[in-house]
Hints:
Elements (H helix, E strand, L loop, with lengths): L2 E3 L2 E2 L3 H35 L1 H7 L2 H4 L3 E2 L6 E2 L2 H30 L5 H13 L5 H27 L14 H25 L3 H9 L4 H30 L2 H6 L17 H8 L6 H35 L1
Helix pairs in contact: 1-12, 2-12, 4-7, 4-9, 5-7, 6-7, 7-9, 8-9, 9-12, 11-12
Amino acid sequence: MTTALAGQPSRSPWKRRIDQLFIRLTQVFAVCAGVLLACMVLVMAWQSVPAFQRFGLSFIFRSAWNPVPGREDFGVFPMLYGTLVSSLLALLIAVPLGLGTAIFLSEDFIPPWSRLAISFLVELLAAIPSVVYGLWGIFVLIPLLQPVERWLHAHLGWIPLFGTEPVGLGMLPASLVLAMMVLPIFTAIAKDSLEALPPELRQASVALGATRWWTLFRVLMPAALPGIVGGAILALGRALGETMAVTMLIGNANQLNVSLLAPANTIASLLANQFPEARGIHVSALMYAALLLMLMTLLVNLLAEAIIARLKATYE
């Protein structure tokens, strides 16, 4: 019998043809995905040309948003600020919680059946529709949060972050719900990164006399760091583009306010709210904002690739 590798039989001709067909199919799907993305960018760029010609790059740094016909004036800076602050705040909350959950589920702290049940429940959070998160935020989270917000304003109101009277809807409840929405993504990736480490790492560390926590924080965590950082960046990308839940909770105020207790807005919420009724230059301004959001997400992904490549080069 002809062998490709010592001790392994060669694949039959029809199996090789199936392999080639599968490779061609994956190539076609990859090219289709790239073409689709390029078409979306081209459409947005083409339709944003009138707004770019009228407002230029000042559109990014201006705070005016007036869609009244005859007096149109647009600037997207408050929405850019709201998108970045809500996403980063959500990540700041979700990463410690998700990392702790990933360590708890990947180590032998509890029986395997309990780990499986908790993992299933955490992953189930990703299957809840965005609108359900929004309704939960309105009817459960905001009433629970209002006493805390009033205390923050009463005792720490001299800090600009808590300088306005809480009105219910605002940046803080939107960020908390965003944190819940990105938590399962980050937790699943961090847990898989820890579980994918070879058992020899742990055995070698223990054999050298390291304790369980020393092994975890000085051996396993650095080895899994590229995957953990990649999960955090993917969660950030998810938070940047979230629409419905944020639209229901953030207050949709197109003005800049640094207070977390004040209503704000994001680019995704702006598009969801105003696109159905937009006409003329208003549509072009929204396309310009959508293009900026896509560029922001692209930069996040490129940053993730660069960080992961740097960490792999450091620890491998």
